[in-house]
Write a structure and sequence with these properties.
Layout: E1 4-10, H1 17-25, E2 32-38, H2 45-50, E3 57-61, H3 68-77, E4 83-86, E5 92-93, H4 97-107, E6 111-121, E7 127-132, H5 141-144, E8 157-159, H6 176-187, E9 189-201, H7 209-230, H8 236-247, H9 253-273, H10 278-293, H11 300-309, H12 317-330
Parallel strand pairs: 1-2, 1-4, 2-3, 6-9
Antiparallel strand pairs: 4-8, 5-9, 6-7, 6-8
Helix pairs in contact: 6-7, 7-8, 9-10, 9-11
Amino acid sequence: MPVVSVLMPVYNAERYVKEAINSILNQTFKDFELVVLNDASSDSSKEIILSFQDARIRYIENEHNRGLSFSRNRLLSEVTGEYIAWLDADDIAHPTRLEEEYRFLEEHSNHAMVASWARLIDSEGKPTGNYIKSYIPDEYLSALLLFVNYFVQSSVMLRKSQLPEVHYRPEFPPTEDYELWVRVAAQHEVAILPKTLVDYRIHTTNISSLQQQKSEKAVKLNHKMQLENLGILPSDEEVNLHYNIAFKKAENLAFLQLTADWLHRINQQNEISKRFEPKALHYILAHRWIKVCTSNKALGVKALKLYFKSKFAEIRLRNTFLIMQYILKSK
């Protein structure tokens, strides 16, 4: 039995799937199987996959297109390894990815899941200059998920034994991975390695307004679920506020006051429900507060006056840098 099962869902990825498969076959870590599922592609993806003559590759297919959630769950039913690693068919794993993540989980038996930083590349494979990175301490990542997700699907490795009984839930597409990580992190320790171990492809020309709407709806549903688990039954207006705190810049001072009140409510409710470790939640709420207060330079020093009125105002090196940068840009 291989130690690691690498899972790759494929749908109409003829431009990229060969490079994705080769990036796994060329790993420095060798004890793996690669299970590739073709979700009834209408292009030449199947022929490209079957052109590989490598005993480590297992090929399966859906008779007709079933979508990503179904395909990911079917792949999980095929796992034979102790560890599960993901790579989407348009992404690229760096050569040491499996080795470094496997070593981490072997050395940290209390961790269920590990991911890494990701370099963003465009549809032609050229680096955009941007990265997905998290500087949040690992012990605070579960609380961070209350707002945002820094776990890149194609960088994740997790223990099969600690995978929740219900895997990807179909009501959360296209962010079903985010919802799964929330449930894993609620029960187990998780980590993000401060290393770039994957290239994550951005298809900016292919992101339709409908896809953006679906993504926003799914994230809001995720936020609502987490708030309910915390003990807050949010209105639609409060869910929208929470989403905007996570992803939008402050439009006016009234929004900053709403944000301050909402963060305090989350903190107070956690004192009752004890959903998050208090230190972890305080760190994340303080992190979110400084980001919101310095998100719009047009608000000037009035935003900083509101910032320092909150219990989440902190004088840390990073916060001081953000405040100084904000002041300079506001002039």
